[in-house]
Design a protein that fits this description.
174 residues, 6 strands, alpha/beta, single chain, globular, 6-stranded parallel β-sheet
Length: 174
């Protein structure tokens, strides 16, 4: 069985390269499972940029996955991303998230302040990403009941069921 890390890439090519460079240099020897990385391109990324990423980073562990993100989440152990709302989606499904900050520019944490850090970590460098992955790998089972309760609460507070009434409300067209 695999330990799967889902990596939804941001729309900016330079940010995507930065994340993949860090992921490619991780040292996760303490994890005693085979690790696989599922890379998901941002829908707004250019084809040329996607090809460059494939040429630079595709290997036996890093796989480009074109399935729907919601399906990939259900088969992932951790999500590593920069400022993607996929991090909050993951937490709502009881999957821990690691937010990778950029070295320069504005960093945006998609996780609301009231969500405890037991569900996510913010990492600024390779060492912090490594320790965050190890933290979630080794501590997930200890806190599984608390995290499950919390993920249910997150779904209630931050997500709406998709139906006609809620779409009309969201679009403000009633």
């Amino acid at each position: 069985s695999y330990f799967t890390i889902l990596i939804p890439l941001p729309v900016l090519y330079s940010d995507s390269l930065s994340i993949l460079k860090k992921i490619n240099n991780l040292n996760l020897n303490k994890i005693n499972k085979k690790i696989r990385y599922w890379i998901v391109f941002h829908p707004g990324m250019q084809k040329k940029e996607k090809r460059n990423i494939i040429n630079l980073y595709l290997n036996k562990k890093m796989v480009i996955n074109n399935k729907k993100t919601e399906n990939l989440l259900r088969h992932s152990n951790i999500v590593c991303t920069s400022h993607s709302s996929v991090a909050l989606e993951a937490i709502s499904l009881n999957i821990p998230a690691i937010i990778i900050n950029k070295k320069s520019g504005i960093n945006f944490n998609p996780i609301p302040e009231e969500i405890p850090k037991t569900m996510f970590r913010i990492s600024n460098n390779l060492k912090e990403i490594n320790s965050s992955i190890e933290y979630f790998y080794f501590n997930k089972n200890e806190k599984i009941n608390d995290l499950f309760k919390l993920s249910k609460e997150i779904k209630k507070r931050y997500f709406e069921k998709i139906n006609q009434r809620n779409i009309i409300k969201f679009l403000d067209i009633d």
